[in-house]
Amino acid sequence: MVHLENLRNIFQRRAILSKEKVLQEKIAYRSIAFEEVQTLRDRIFVRNPFEARYRPLHSYVPFYFAARTPMLHVNKRKGFQKEIVIFEVSLSFLTIQGVYLLMAMQAISSLPNMEEKMSLLHLQLH
Predict the structure, then answer these.
(1) Domain containing 16: what range?
(2) For a tag on the chain, would you pick the N or C end, based on fewer CB atoms within 10 A?
(3) pLDDT tens digits, residue range 25-39?
(4) Count of helices and strands (H, E) across the chain
(5) In this structure, what DSSP letter does residue 91 have?
């Protein structure tokens, strides 16, 4: 799920990049993210089993397996749901070497503060 304005860069690179990669390469983009959630994600590190090390959550590309996501709801409230593009992909991408799926609950569990966990869960469930 991306903002319509980001399509040119996605098609030019033939890839959807992580937030970390976009910032490293200084690519202009339009964020549709809920900033409070982004602030929480800045502090989350996830163990990557392929590299046997921890990486920032922002080094991964967010991906949803549902048509109605919390992210879509947030953007509807912001008033630009009609500017959102949702990609449909084949599940065969799961067989690509290096693809790693992270459950949202795993990311939340790495937060040290229970209050932060509950606030993030609340945002994701509503």
Answers:
(1) 2-125
(2) C
(3) 999 999 888 777 788
(4) 6, 4
(5) G
CA angle 93, 95, 96 (to 5 degrees): 70
Report which of 83, 55, 62 is spatially closest to residue 18, judged by C-alpha positions: 62
Is the dihedral angle over the CA atoms 17, 55, 108, 89 positive or is it negative? positive
DSSP H/E element including 55: strand 53-56
Angstrom CA distances, 12 to 3, 7, 9, 122, stand at 15, 8, 5, 36
pTM: 0.72
CB of 69 closer than 8 Å to CB of 32:
no
Please name the residue ranges forming H helices in the chain.
Answer: 7-13, 19-24, 35-41, 70-78, 104-109, 114-125
